[in-house]
Amino acid sequence: MTAVTDAYFSNLIGRLEALKKSLAEPMAKAAAVILDAARHDKRVYVFGTGHSHMLAEEVHYRAGGLAFTVPVLIGSAMLHEGAVISSVYERTQGLVRPVLERYGMQPGDVIIIASNSGVNAAPIEAADYGREIGAKVIAVTSVAYSSAIANGRRRLADIADVVLDNGLPPGDAVLDLAGSGLKVGPVSTAVGATVLNAIFAEVASALSKSGDAPVYLSANMPGAAEVNQRLVKKYRPRNPHL
After folding, report:
1. What stretch or stretches form a coiled coil here (predicted)?
2. Buried-most residue among 36, 107, 183, 216 (CB within 10 A)?
């Protein structure tokens, strides 16, 4: 391993170790909110724009993942339809609400919003919508980043019921390129996926004690087809991506 790759691994591992302590309480709160929703047959929506949308896909129809998660996917605000224009869309007021209305979110549901910068129009609008309809809002964001760039704008961290502060620096990248003034090695996706998977594992553990953990199996595992088909049949009516 070279010095650069070693530095990236070490930086990421160090951040995850620190988050085990700093996020212990908010992760417990998030797990409790999600567990309560699950026990009342509610759904957990996951939303993000740009690269943050990968967290919505991370927990969707995932081996070892919970079946009541619903990704909110807005093509124009992702990357595959045009990365440059997606940055414009995520800053555009009015884009998110009509999309969320189509998902049929209900009171008692949960919406997890991933936004590292935490100030763009799309995640703010998603948080406002969630609160208006009576859903719990969980934010995955960098408080340091949003504080540095807010300039009077509202921050996702100020709206959410539970804030999972990933502790990342403004700009996301964590490694300096000597003599260039550039930084490389973004970590928000790796950190966000770890945090969410840990929370959902906690929820699944609690649900399993009553024999009611709707967990997908890998398609290549014995009995997976029967288990997954049953879960898809149950959860498809409120998940347009199944």
Report:
1. none
2. 216
With b for 16 or more beta-carbon neighbours within 10 A and e for fewer, the 207-222 pattern comes to beeeeeebbbbeeeee
Distance between CA atoms of 141 and 118, rounded to whole angstroms?
Answer: 6
Nearest residue to 63 via CA among 218, 213, 197: 218
Nearest-Å Rg of the Cα atoms of the chain is 18
Residue 51 CB coordination number (10 Å): 18
DSSP 60: S
pTM (2 decimals)?
A: 0.94
Residue 183: its H or E element: strand 182-186
> Tens-digit pLDDT profile for the chain (242 aa)?
899 999 999 999 999 999 999 999 999 999 999 999 999 999 999 998 888 888 999 999 999 999 999 999 875 665 576 666 667 566 668 888 998 999 999 999 999 999 998 888 899 999 999 999 999 999 999 999 899 888 888 999 999 999 999 999 999 999 999 889 999 999 999 999 999 999 999 999 999 998 889 999 999 999 999 999 999 999 999 999 99
Of 144, 191, 149, 178, the residue nearest 15 (C-alpha): 191
What is the Cα–Cα distance from 175 to 113, expressed in whole angstroms? 26
Which of the four CATH numbers 3.90.650.10, 3.40.50.2300, 3.40.50.10490, 3.10.20.600 does domain 22-236 have?
A: 3.40.50.10490
Closest CA to 202 of 189, 187, 213: 213
